[in-house]
Amino acid sequence: MSHYVNIISEKVKTEADIKRAKEMLWSYGEEDCERNSDGQGGLSSRPVWENRTFESYDEACDYLAAHSGFYWIGGCFAKVYQKNAKAEDVKKRIAEAKENLADYVKKADCKNFKSAKVGCPNCGSNLNKNYVKLLTYSQPCPLCGTDLFSKTVQENIKSKRAKIADLEKKLEKSCNTKKYDTYLLFKYEFHC
Ligand SMILES: [Zn+2]
User: Fold this and answer.
1) In this model, does residue 44 exceed pLDDT 70?
2) Do 55 and 121 share a domain, yes or no?
3) What is the whole-number distance in angstroms between the Cα of residue 112 and the centre of ligand 1?
4) pLDDT at 192
5) Distance 164 CA to ligand 1 centre (A)
6) Domain that holds residue 30
7) What is the pLDDT of residues 127-160, one digit of tens each?
8) Residue 74's closest CA among 36, 22, 34?
């Protein structure tokens, strides 16, 4: 002696699909009820089709399940977002480009050079390498702030950063065009 609650669904695209899905889901529930109900309560009323669309399948199920216990039968729509393959690919490329840049900066650190001292081209200081900090994108002279990286290294860092910024723009764009399928969900309930 219990209530049997079930939620079934059908992918829909057009108005015709929706009409067909409503009939199909309803008759599936009706057959299920005829076969398995003990006759103490079932699909006696016509379904309430709500013109509501939830942002996920789970949210729609939660909404329908909340109507349990009263033999309420009906349905609503849910969006099911497709996995965004392009965005995943761009994300991977961004991670790789960032790793590549970090490696490049680490290698350009003057501490990797053989000489114990490094000269600043701007203020002329002859610096002890241990006092020259490596920042994320530069290695400034502790006295005047001039970047001690060579012009070539600076240019390379600049172009690597520009490439990352481009990819990030691309990612934003592909995230804005999220694709989804629409499902019509149907909840029914009977006594068994
Ligand atoms: Zn300097």
Assistant:
1) no
2) no
3) 19
4) 86
5) 29
6) 3-81+180-191
7) 999 889 999 999 999 999 999 999 999 999 999 9
8) 22
Type of residue found at 178: K
Count of CB atoms situated within 10 Å of the CB of 33: 22
| 154 in the same domain as 117 | yes
Same domain, 169 and 123: yes
pLDDT, tens digit (0-9, with 9 covering 90-100), for 167-186: 999 999 888 878 899 999 99
Q: How far is the CA of 141 from the centre of ligand 1 (A)?
A: 5
Work out the end-to-end distance of the chain between its first and last CA atoms, rounded to an integer number of angstroms.
6
- Are 56 and 124 part of one and the same domain? no
Looking at the structure of the chain, the number of domains it has is 2
**Residue 157 C-alpha to ligand 1 middle, in angstroms?**
20
CA of residue 119 to ligand 1 center, whole Å: 8
Instruction: Count the residues in the chain.
Output: 192
Identity (one letter) of the amino acid at 10? E
